[in-house]
């Protein structure tokens, strides 16, 4: 194209990519013989929401689970490559996996509160990690976490009720409060809204927007609209490959790869 | 490009493109008829142009409604979203073209007196032929998503602009020579300017086609030959 119609305009950087929180290089995951994730390399920025999208079985959840070593719990799973958080290899032999999972919290598809009181759900993690020296400290952590999860006002009179007595959306926010309580740096969310109604979903999305000021959030979602709404960066996975990553704006308006375009526009065969 | 999993979505997008093409056909006809009516001073034809403009306006409303419904129903992304936005933009330009043709037709009904020179009408006709060719090419580029045709239209507006400027100069000369021709010459000047603006709308459509295909706007400076703002005749005395 000639100079006359030179049209590219510099895109405003949405997030600072110069110092990523999580860096993954050539990550491969095998479940037995199955090669589930192929040479995935990505930088995940701090104080931003990064969304992983892609069809079922594309490897997005598998990769998410690598970030707090949840795949260690699957006997046949084998992970190669390198994942670093703040420059430290999380697959280092000397690393304490329990400590890692305190730094990298996780919220699952189905709300899974412990069959204990609302208070205990949030207090459990800090207690086993030795946070909070006394009851007053622990109370403080529980209340702050519930407030940050946007749940405190709704449950402040029911702290001793069972966590499972809350509504689905409240249970999910309780799980987020539980994850926040141990002071993580990264929060992984695996389809956190797929079991929730639109109102509860909106509340979680609003919460993600607030939480990203203090945390690095990674979300796996099947809802393209949700990825477009909540994330600053998006990565598209397909058949175990990381096909395309970039600013969410770019991925959803002018994706580079044909497969990305076909997927987000609903043309995938 | 493969079809959508939801086939009705493809049908919605195709229907939008078809409606825009239909509107484009009506706009082309309005241009040709309004200038014919002006050249032959045919007030009957002029009235028909004025009446037919309603159909263009109706189509614009239908396209807008269809586009809004498609956005609400399908939440289009990427190229699909650009297609819907493109249809909205193009129909807006076509509606303006229809209005400009109607404005020429209204002048035909009002005009009295003899033309100062037959070359003026030939100039206007030549301009409208160029605009029609531009519009045809850009509507083709819209229908086929053809970028090079769209860019040719985008760059091709200069000649229309220069013709308009020279017509302005000529008309100013006649008005200076014979003040009784002012009323007629002003009508002709506005007609020339209307045709020139139709050309601008054709280039707008070219920009929209570029956006639809490439996903980014054409931001460079377009070649322009419109210097009518500087057309003057020396003051007498």
Give the structure's gist in a few sentences.
With 269 residues, chain A is an alpha/beta fold.
Note the main attributes of this structure.
heterodimer; A: 269 residues; alpha/beta; Rossmann fold; 6-stranded mixed β-sheet; 4-stranded antiparallel β-sheet; 10 helices; 34% helix; 24% strand; disordered N terminus; B: 237 residues; mainly alpha; Methane Monooxygenase Hydroxylase, Chain G, domain 1; 7 helices; 0% strand
What does this 3D model show about the protein?
The complex is a heterodimer of chains A (269) and B (237). Chain A is α/β, with parallel strands linked by helices and 269 residues long. Chain A has one domain (22-264): Rossmann fold (3-Layer(aba) Sandwich), CATH 3.40.50. Helix content of chain A is 34%, strand content 24%. Chain A is built from ten helices and ten strands. Chain A has a six-stranded mixed sheet, sandwiched between helices. In chain A, strands 2-1-4-5 form a four-stranded antiparallel sheet, with helices on one face. In chain A, helix 4 packs across helix 6 and helix 6 packs parallel to helix 7. The longest helix of chain A is centred in the middle third of the chain and has 14 residues, at 135-148. Chain A is globular and about 55 Å long. The termini of chain B are far apart. The longest helix of chain B has 34 residues, at 7-40. In chain B, helix 1 (7-40) runs antiparallel to helix 4, helix 4 (118-144) runs antiparallel to helix 6 (158-177) and helix 4 (118-144) runs parallel beside helix 7 (182-214). In chain B, 79% of the residues lie in helices and 0% in strands. Chain B is mostly helical and 237 residues long. At the A-B interface, helix 8 and helix 10 of A face helix 3 and helix 5 of B.
């Amino acid at each position: 194209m000639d100079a006359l119609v030179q049209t590219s305009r510099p895109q405003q950087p949405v997030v600072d990519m110069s110092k990523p929180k999580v860096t993954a290089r050539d990550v491969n995951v095998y479940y037995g013989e199955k090669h589930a994730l192929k040479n995935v390399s990505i930088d995940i920025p701090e104080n931003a929401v990064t969304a992983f999208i892609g069809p079922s079985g594309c490897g997005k959840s598998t990769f998410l689970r690598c970030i707090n070593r949840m795949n260690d719990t699957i006997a046949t799973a084998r992970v190669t490559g390198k994942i670093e958080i703040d420059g430290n290899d999380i697959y280092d032999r000397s690393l304490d996996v329990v400590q890692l999972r305190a730094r990298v919290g996780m919220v699952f598809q189905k709300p899974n509160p412990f069959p204990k009181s609302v208070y205990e759900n949030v207090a459990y993690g800090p207690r086993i990690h030795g946070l909070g020296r006394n009851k007053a400290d622990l109370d403080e952590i529980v209340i702050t976490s519930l407030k940050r999860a946007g749940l405190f006002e709704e449950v402040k009179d029911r702290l001793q009720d069972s966590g499972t007595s809350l509504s689905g959306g409240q249970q999910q926010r309780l799980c987020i409060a539980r994850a926040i309580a141990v002071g993580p740096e990264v929060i992984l969310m695996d389809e956190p809204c797929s079991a929730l109604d639109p109102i509860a979903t909106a509340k979680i999305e609003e919460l993600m927007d607030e939480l990203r000021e203090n945390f690095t959030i990674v979300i796996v979602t099947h809802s393209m609209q949700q990825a477009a709404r909540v994330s600053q960066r998006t990565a598209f996975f397909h058949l175990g490959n990381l096909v395309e990553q970039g600013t969410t704006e770019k991925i959803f308006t002018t994706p580079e790869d044909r497969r990305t375009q076909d997927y987000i526009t609903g043309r995938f065969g | 490009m493969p079809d959508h999993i939801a086939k009705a979505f493809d049908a919605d997008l195709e229907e939008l493109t078809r409606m825009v093409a239909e509107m484009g056909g009506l706009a082309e006809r309005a241009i040709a008829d309004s200038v014919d009516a002006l050249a032959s001073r045919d007030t009957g034809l002029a009235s028909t142009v004025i009446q037919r403009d309603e159909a263009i306006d109706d189509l614009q409303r239908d396209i807008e409604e269809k586009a809004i419904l498609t956005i609400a129903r399908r939440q289009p992304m990427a190229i699909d979203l650009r297609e819907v936005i493109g249809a909205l933009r193009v129909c807006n330009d076509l509606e303006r073209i229809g209005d400009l043709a109607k404005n020429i037709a209204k002048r035909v009904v009002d005009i009295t007196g003899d033309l100062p020179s037959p070359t003026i009408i030939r100039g206007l006709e030549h301009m409208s032929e160029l605009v029609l060719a531009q519009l045809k090419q850009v509507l083709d580029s819209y229908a086929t998503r053809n970028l090079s045709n769209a860019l040719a239209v985008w760059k091709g507006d200069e000649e229309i602009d220069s013709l308009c400027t020279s017509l302005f100069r000529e008309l100013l000369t006649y008005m200076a020579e014979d003040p009784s021709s002012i009323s007629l010459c002003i009508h002709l000047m506005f007609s020339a300017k209307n045709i020139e603006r139709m050309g601008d709308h054709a280039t707008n459509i070219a920009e929209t086609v570029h956006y639809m295909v490439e996903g980014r706007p054409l931001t460079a400076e377009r070649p322009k030959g419109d210097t009518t703002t500087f057309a003057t005749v020396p003051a007498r005395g």
